[in-house]
Design a protein that fits this description.
Elements (H helix, E strand, L loop, with lengths): L1 H20 L18 H11 L2 H6 L7 H12 L7 H18 L2 H6 L1 E3 L5 E3 H27 L6 H5 L8
Antiparallel strand pairs: 1-2
Helix pairs in contact: 1-5, 1-7, 2-5, 2-7
Amino acid sequence: MYKQILLNSIIKEMKIVRRLSTKIPADQIDYRPKEGIRSTLELLQYISYSATGMLQYWYRKDDSEFRPFYALLTAHSKTVTHENFIAEMDSQIELVTKIFNEITEEDLFKKEVDYPWGEKALLGEAILETCVKWITGYKMQLFLKIKLSSEEKLTTPDLWRKTELEMI
């Protein structure tokens, strides 16, 4: 049951991000509040793997080190555009679902994973500390960037509840 709750939470966040991406005016995709902060497009590219990157690392089929693995994620993210972002998020939803199909309830409470920065954690906690928190935090950044760079009238439900593209 906990496994399904985690998966549902991640997918819901991804769907909200997917919907928010449709609110970005085309002429604002390169918006950057100030130097040193990701542009809206760079944020979309990072978001494209923020909810799945660590899961992919923990469930990879080889013994690759984190840095080369992460470099591949980053390189792939550079192919993400405003136009193909929704398709990329749909692909990520499929990926996170596939990975969660490999996880058992017991794994969440007993399997220990290594963070790339040297700490260890139980898988369930690690998923909360990375996948859930990262997609949620970057979703908030995207919401605020859209509000700052456009005339879009986004409200609280746009950030927390409105997930389906049909609601646009």
